Amino acid sequence: MFKKRLPNFLFFYTYLGNKMLIALFLSFSVGLLDGLGLAMFIPLLQMVGGTSGSSSEKVVSEGMGNFDVFLNFLTSIGIPLNLVSVMLIILFFFLMKGIAKFCESYYNVVLTTNFVKRIRIEAVNSISSINYGYFISLDSGRIQNTLSGEIERLQQAFRYYSSSVQSIISVLVYMALAFLTNPQFALFVAIGGGLSNLLYTKLYTKTKDTSKKITNANHVFHGLMMQQVHNFKYLRATGQVDAFSLRLKKTITSLAINFRKIGFFNSVLLSTKEPLSITVVVVVILVQVSYFKSDLGPIILSLMFFYRSLNQLINYQNSWNGFLNYSGSLNNFKEFVEELKANKLDYNVGERISNIESIELENVSFSYDHRKFLQQINLVIEKNKTVAFVGESGSGKTTLTNILTGLLFADSGTLLVNGMDIKNSNLNNFQARIGYITQEPVIFSDSLFNNITFWSEKTPKNFEKFKESVNLASLTSFLDGLEKGEDTPLGNNGIMVSGGQKQRIAIAREIYKDVDLLVMDEATSALDTATEKEIQESFEKLKGKFTLIIIAHRLSTIKSADTIYFLNKGQIEYSGDFYSLQNESREFKNMVELQGVS
User: Which of 9, 157, 293, 572 shows a CA-CA span of 20 to 30 A to 533?
Assistant: First the structure.
């Protein structure tokens, strides 16, 4: 049993350290003080029965069994055993127990909040430092569930685990006091309690297995919910909402069934544990008194300890079963974090890059899952130049850009930044010099100011920088038309603004960041012609001020690029400016003619 529970203790100990031991000591103190207070009720009852003086002390000792050592200690330090002193001693122990119980309870709150804080920080750090190549292979539903719902379940797991540990410490204290009072009676009850506990082993196994099923079903449910929200327009427009909802409902039904199973197991435990425990005690008392002719006094005192112990044992079993309900989340979180750590990347080592002067690829090749995406790529991008990548879908444009920005790492070849191998550079520092704008620009559910400044403090200097970024992104008239100005909320994922406004907000954010390299990944492909033209005018303002990398299907957006690279099947077939490339590449010329670009 200890080996099975040790990994759980070590998991929590990893986050809380010796604070866990302090909690154990407080639980021990509560049990001990309660036990000593209870022990004094025996002499109190005897005194109420009319005994007094020296004879009462003798009777008290006989009624206390081996626990008379404690009474002898009290008399040896000058405390007389009379009605007043015994009641004061009882009061003292229970007052001290109350203080210890408060400390135990509040300290457990402190431990819980610290534990949740640390696992959340670890989750954030683990996600932030993983390799992008691994990240794209992760199940989004699993990420969402683990970092939100699973952490909430972990908090519940810790609460139940702490409660079970506190209860088992109390059980051990009361059992020790019971053994001290009447070893034979205590031994029989312990054996009976142990045998009765074996009846619940299968129940605990079923609870743990069901908890794992709930965790896995939650992953699926969160993934499906994210897909339904993200793809709602398609599902609604094509009449597939009901079909997709049916799949969701099956997952919900599976979750409900498993939750009912756990509820059934808990109900069995709650309803049978106490009657079974009391049955054991009654049988042992009858055997002790009838067969072994034991005195009833020590048995009663031992029974008081055992009754407390059995109550705590029931609390322990209930808490442990509650912990098992959430244990699937604990195992999932451990596996998830270990998996993230195994695929982490230290982005903050190497030489810092104050600005990006040049980027060069030398014989770069890249493959994924046995498929070649890039082969022997060589190119140089100089500061403040504009380069574009064109080609059919699957030609390697986005993969090439991901390597240039340090998101992916080449299987062979070298990425040089300012003439230095990226492997020797501070990757986080390099990427902080990069702006990235995609077909679906990132808009946070916050104000215009916070979206552009990335939650910078609204100082006069930052506000002036904000206005300059707005102007360069052609957003001034948009800002002037907002009722709340820069404090206007943009809605969930920017639902309150148009596609073109989203793109300009994204551009303004990257300008505000004071980047060197600006990547436009199909930034205008989802826009209408008029809006595309407006965004193109914004790009023209940036030409020569930043190094621009543009991935485009619409060739009108790259007419003014300094160099255009035409990719085919992961290789650069041709390169040149817009007009020279038409002379060199028949494929590029056909693309220009098909799009009617002059």
Answer: 572
